[in-house]
Every structure is written in structure tokens, then in C-alpha cells.
Design brief:
CATH class of the largest domain: Alpha Beta
CATH topology of the largest domain: Rossmann fold
Order of helices and strands: EHEHEEHEEHEHHHEHEEHEH
CATH superfamily of the largest domain: Flavodoxin domain
Number of strands: 11
Helix content: 25-40%
Largest sheet: 5 strands, parallel
CATH architecture of the largest domain: 3-Layer(aba) Sandwich
Bound molecules: flavin mononucleotide, iron/sulfur cluster
Number of domains: 2
Oligomer: single chain
Length: about 250
């Protein structure tokens, strides 16, 4: 089994590791321009952004060529997934591919302008992540065939959200971040950035290819990076995933 994944704070990597198989980081495959794959089972695992795919995952799908007999996709999310997986299945059809199984899994929401991480952590048990994850892994093993449905209203609403989000997330978002005096130029933010958008010299500077993944904001060991509109200054990394694993997944330098 071959699994392609993208992660900023570890949730999607935790799901990918639990699913098993040979794992490939999408940012690294894009960097190495490695796009040809063939395996019996192929899977895609990623966080849901704005009820849709992160731009980096969309870009990978536009480039990859693969052959498989069974294909699945899992979106990790923190609050509402919208018709993300329904739309992905439609995209697969447009490409001439077949998505056999698509599912979503509710985890900690790392969207700092919307959610307070302490609240997320206090309620995480209710999400029964490991129980749902086991069901999903069993479904993949049993080669389940199912794609979630979406109502017309959900699809219209999501199309509106997408056009708004794509205007807001123009790649320059990180240029609005505030770096405070705690920054000791350790370089970690640059290593966890999936697009190589961060330069660390006399000061930290952000380029114009930001995914708004908040990886740098959550992972900075000094908690020195802040959004102007964050709900709190508490940060998150999935407890089963190490800093080194996030660096290996995303480092572009
Ligand atoms: C820019 C951005 C947009 C997000 N949009 C959504 C969303 O539409 N719905 C949702 O439930 N969670 C949303 N989230 C939360 C993430 O999907 C969720 O926390 C995910 O599990 C993070 O995965 P990761 O740890 O692998 O990066 C968003 C997070 C970010 C950073
Ligand atoms: S990770 Fe944090 S402390 Fe390290 S260089 Fe980046 S902003 Fe500074
Ligand atoms: S600059 Fe920060 S938020 Fe933007 S893509 Fe890089 S790690 Fe993610």
C-alpha cells in the first residue's frame, strides 16, 4: 500500500502512520518532482482547509500519475468537513480516476483564528479519535467502497466559502504574523514549512507561497510566532508525532 500525506501539526501523519503502508510526504514529492506511482492500494491523507483541499494537495493531484486497483482518501478535520470528500470524488472522475473509499476523521482543530486549543484538548476525548481511526483502517483493509454524499445547499455554500477563502489565502498570509522577542533564530519554523516560505537571517521573513497551514505558528519551540486574530496563544502538535517527523515531512531546504 502506498500512502501520500500532508500534515502541518501531525494529525494527518498520525492517521497515515496508523493506516500503514509506504508513506510519502506530498511536500517532499513536489520538491523532488516525483509523480509516477503504481501499487495495489493507493491512499491520500490530508487536513481539510475551508471545507476543501489544501492548495499543496490540489497541486500534487494535478501532477501525480498513478495506477492502483483500490484508492482511498481520508480528510482530517476539527469541526465541519463540508462536501470536501464528495467534491474530491468528482475531481477524480474528471481526471479519469476512481476513488473507491473516502472518509473524514474529527480531530483537534488547529485553526487558530477560530478555535482555542485548550478547549479543543479538553474535549478531544469526546471525538473518540482512536475508535474512528480503527474503523477507517478496517474499512481500508476490507476495501470498502463508499463516498459520502453532499446536499446541493452544502455544495453551493462551499463554493462561496472557497471563493472567499482563495481571495484571503493569497500566499502572503504569513507576512501578517507577529514575531515576538522570544525568537532565538533556532530555525525550526523554516524546517517545518511545507513550501520553504520562511527565511531566517537577522530577522524572520515570510515569502508569498504561504499555505496558511499554521505549522510554523504551532511548532515554534519558543511560541514566538503569533497571528493578529488568534483565539489564544496555546499551541498544538499531535501528541503521537515528533517534531523530527514534522521536519522530515515538510523541510524544503
Ligand atoms: C487554514 C486552515 C483551514 C481549516 N479549515 C477547516 C475546515 O474547513 N473545517 C474543519 O473542520 N477544520 C478545518 N481546519 C482544521 C484542520 O483541518 C485540522 O485541525 C486537521 O486535523 C489538521 O491536520 P494536521 O495536524 O495534519 O495539519 C483548518 C485548519 C487550517 C490551518
Ligand atoms: S521557530 Fe520560533 S524561535 Fe525558532 S527561528 Fe522560528 S520564530 Fe524564531
Ligand atoms: S509560512 Fe508558516 S503558515 Fe505559511 S506555509 Fe509556511 S509553515 Fe505554513
Amino acid at each position: 500500500m502506498t500512502v501520500f500525506y500532508f500534515t502541518a501539526t501531525g494529525n494527518s501523519l498520525y492517521v497515515a502512520k496508523t493506516a500503514g503502508g509506504k508513506l510519502y510526504s506530498i511536500p517532499q514529492l513536489l520538491k523532488d518532482k516525483q509523480f509516477n506511482f503504481e501499487d495495489d492500494v493507493v491512499g491520500f491523507i490530508f487536513p481539510i482547509y475551508g471545507f476543501g483541499l489544501p492548495k499543496i494537495v490540489q497541486k500534487f493531484l494535478e501532477n501525480i500519475k498513478f495506477k492502483s486497483t483500490y484508492t482511498f482518501a481520508i480528510g482530517t478535520y476539527g469541526n465541519m468537513h463540508g462536501p470536501c470528500m464528495y467534491n474530491l470524488a468528482k475531481y477524480f472522475i474528471k481526471k479519469g480516476w476512481r476513488l473507491n473509499y473516502a472518509d473524514t476523521i474529527l480531530m483537534v482543530d488547529n485553526y487558530l483564528p477560530g478555535f482555542e486549543i485548550n478547549n479543543q484538548l479538553n474535549t478531544v476525548e469526546n471525538k473518540r479519535i482512536d475508535k474512528h481511526l480503527k474503523e477507517i483502517v478496517d474499512n481500508i483493509k476490507n476495501k470498502k467502497n463508499s463516498i459520502p454524499a453532499a446536499t446541493i445547499m452544502e455544495r453551493i455554500f462551499t463554493a462561496l466559502v472557497h471563493s472567499l477563502v482563495s481571495k484571503l489565502l493569497d500566499g502572503k498570509s504569513a507576512q501578517q504574523y507577529i514575531i515576538n522577542e522570544k525568537c532565538n533564530k533556532c530555525g525550526t519554523c523554516g524546517k517545518v514549512c511545507p513550501t520553504g516560505n520562511i527565511e531566517i537571517r537577522d530577522k524572520i521573513t515570510f515569502g508569498n507561497v504561504c499555505e496558511s497551514c499554521y505549522g510554523c505558528v504551532h511548532i515554534c519551540p519558543q511560541n514566538a510566532i503569533h497571528l493578529r486574530n488568534e483565539k489564544s496563544d496555546i499551541r498544538f502538535r499531535n501528541e503521537n508525532i515528533t517534531l523530527q517527523e514534522i521536519i522530515q515531512s515538510n523541510n524544503q531546504k
